[in-house]
Design a protein that fits this description.
Helices cover 41% and strands 20% of the residues. It contains 16 helices and 16 strands. The strands form three sheets. An eight-stranded mixed β-sheet has the order 1-5-6-11-10-9-7-8. Strands 13-12-14-15-16 form a five-stranded mixed β-sheet, with helices on both faces. α1 packs antiparallel against α5, α1 crosses α12 and α5 packs parallel to α10. Bound molecules: adenosine-5'-triphosphate and magnesium ion. The site of adenosine-5'-triphosphate (ATP) has 18 residues, from β6, β10, β11 and α12.
Length: 426
């Protein structure tokens, strides 16, 4: 028998055991996009290479080292798409979608980047993308951000957190570029080879470096906000106001420049600290120059992309945390005497089973309503103390997550039950 064929590194099979989480993300997103008037578009996974080198930027990580580029059988250079925005703009231009029209579009599918695979970073990964083309005002910036916030809500996610910045217009940025060149040139000996390379061609990219040794230098670099043009400033303030009006909180991050060259004005990233080094779950911004850069008329536009694998992993990480907070046992007590004794019994059990999460009912009411609360708490066991148990010096143990009969047990018996559930759950 020959060896089984291995998958390509960094390209995953997405198996049925995670299908429900994937489906939850995809269907919630689709529902929200449609509710805000965004229509689905499907574009090819492969494009001519020049589409990406012209739009994403020659000095970006993506174009310099991450693209899957090869010659097809006719010798044309083609590339598996590393992101969707360029393709959507290309599709709009190819099909005349932008002639005096505004378009709100979304799409979903695999992207390809030759990066070092690790948790949250793969060579084939999946994105949801939303793009609004033909809108100049700050309302659309806020709308797009709110759409992502609604998606986290719908998925029951606590994190991520929103970071915002404005890159201003290309003209404003050129003043900043010079300031950065000046600043980083003074520390050439600290810069790594990649940053030195970027110093002349695109010093803003240095701010996006993932090299931790450059952290302090980057932190003290000049800030773009001091170079913003007035229109961009007003636009950015309005975006912030609109977000505050609908209670979407954010943090201003002057170092946020994003990894693609085509952005202008508003840029944002939803970040989390729950996925290790891979902190960005959704990112985007305004790209007012891109349509013209790709051969269309001057057309404002903005969009974002969400990494589905990272969101799925975040949902799983948060679920696990919820599971970790669930009690092992919940003590319900019937009658005045039982409440009084129960307090001491709970303390005794906690002392004998270190680390056990034993919640005592403190809200009272009927035994039935206490057991309902026990069930809602996610506890494995309900411990019941009523008159019968009191007189027998025992507790009733009722399994809430398995199908075993309720039994009366001595305190020693309860201790071994608690040791068992403590060992089984995290
Ligand atoms: P990072 O800084 O983590 O490399 P990025 O800035 O390159 O992210 P974008 O190009 O903005 O990412 O892509 C949008 C989203 O796609 C990211 O926020 C992330 O959730 C996801 N993503 C990007 N690269 C990968 C990858 N290699 N594997 C899985 N998800 C990814
Ligand atoms: Mg990247």
């Amino acid at each position: 028998m020959s060896n089984p064929i291995q998958p390509v590194r960094g390209m995953n099979d997405i198996l049925p055991d995670v299908r429900s989480v994937w489906a939850a993300v995809e269907s919630a997103a689709e529902e929200i996009f449609e509710a805000y008037g965004y229509q689905r578009i499907r574009i090819p996974v492969m494009e001519r290479t020049e589409l990406f080198s012209r739009s994403i930027g020659e000095t970006t990580d993506i174009v310099q080292k991450e693209m899957y580029t090869f010659e097809d059988r006719n010798g044309s250079s083609v590339t598996l798409r590393p992101e969707a925005t360029a393709g959507i703009v290309r599709a709009g231009l190819s099909n005349g979608l932008f002639h005096n029209q505004q378009q709100k579009l979304w799409c979903s599918g695999p992207m390809f980047r030759h990066e070092r695979p690790q948790k949250g970073r793969y060579r084939q990964f999946h994105q949801l993308n939303v793009e609004a083309i033909g809108f100049a005002g700050p309302e659309i910036d806020a709308e797009l951000i709110v759409i992502s916030a609604r998606l986290w809500e719908r998925l029951g996610l606590e994190s991520p957190n929103l970071e915002l910045n404005s890159l201003g217009t290309p003209e404003a940025r050129s003043g900043y570029r010079e300031a950065l060149q000046h600043y980083f040139s003074a520390s050439k000996d600290v810069l790594d080879a990649e940053s030195l390379n970027r110093l002349e061609r695109n010093p803003l990219r240095i701010l996006d470096s993932k090299n931790p040794d450059l952290g302090p230098l980057i932190t003290s670099a000049p800030e773009l906000s001091d170079y913003l043009d007035d229109d961009s400033k007003t636009h950015f303030e309005r975006v912030q106001q609109l977000l505050s009006d609908v209670n979407v909180s954010y943090r201003l991050n002057p170092r946020l420049v994003r990894g693609l060259d085509y952005y202008s004005r508003t840029v944002f990233e939803w970040v989390t600290d729950r996925l290790g080094a891979q902190s960005a779950v959704c990112s985007g911004g305004r790209y007012d120059g891109l349509v013209a850069q790709l051969g269309g008329r001057n057309t404002p536009a903005i969009g974002w992309a969400l990494g589905i694998e990272r969101v799925v992993e975040l949902i799983e990480a948060e679920r696990l945390q919820i599971l970790e907070r669930q009690p092992h046992a919940y003590l319900a007590m019937a009658g005045e005497q039982a409440r009084r004794q129960g307090f001491g019994i709970a303390e005794n059990l906690r002392a004998r089973v270190p680390g056990v999460r034993l919640f005592m009912d403190c809200a009272g009411g009927s035994l039935k309503s206490q057991l309902r609360r026990a069930d809602h708490s996610g506890a494995h066991l309900a411990l019941i103390l009523g008159e019968d148990e009191l007189s027998a010096d025992q507790l009733s143990v009722k399994a809430l997550r398995e199908d075993t009969p309720q039994s009366m047990q001595s305190l020693d018996g309860v201790v071994s039950e608690l040791l068992r559930v403590r060992g089984e759950s995290p």
